[in-house]
Amino acid sequence: MYEDLRIICWPDPRLKKKSKPIDVFDEALQALARRMFVLVRDAKGVGLAAPQVGMNIRMFVMNPTGQDGDDRVYVNPVLSDPVGEEESEEGCLSFPGIHVNVVRNKAIHMSAQDLDGQTIEQTETGYIARIWQHEYDHLNGALLTDRMGPAARMTHRKLLKEMEEHYAAQHPPLPMMKRLAAR
Length: 183
Fold this sequence. Notes:
By secondary structure, the protein is an alpha+beta fold. It has one domain (13-182): Peptide Deformylase. Helices cover 34% and strands 27% of the residues. The protein is built from six helices and five strands. Strands 1-2-3-4-5 form a five-stranded antiparallel beta sheet, sandwiched between helices. It starts with 26 loop residues before the first helix and ends with a helix. The model has no long low-confidence stretch (mean pLDDT 94).
């Protein structure tokens, strides 16, 4: 069902859209989560949000340890009660090869649902809290580039330009758009 899904990269405009809540908990949602776990493992990541596979719905998957049995799925998450701040390096599967320091809350509470629609209430700190916040950003259309400071932007400008050029080559403008742009 979702075999053709791939991780999409910046500057794909789907990454900047705010995702919609999920109200149907069915086999299709479970199949999407399974496919996302395959993709995140293949990419050697720890988390993946649905917008990163072109699905603008409020769900993300994660496995903070890489161990079997530590897969976690969060549907319709809401973060609250942030505590403190810390800066640490982050990467993103939609920005391959880019790692930047990002300030995140040290601890945070999440209310969410699982794949059956059951309520999840958790508070986490450190690495797991950081993953939650990173993936939650994706659900709201916020990207690593939005968290970069000027120095990080300058450091990665060549790679970002290459990503823009690659995307443009894969998605040429439609003939009508070319005429409008030439005006």
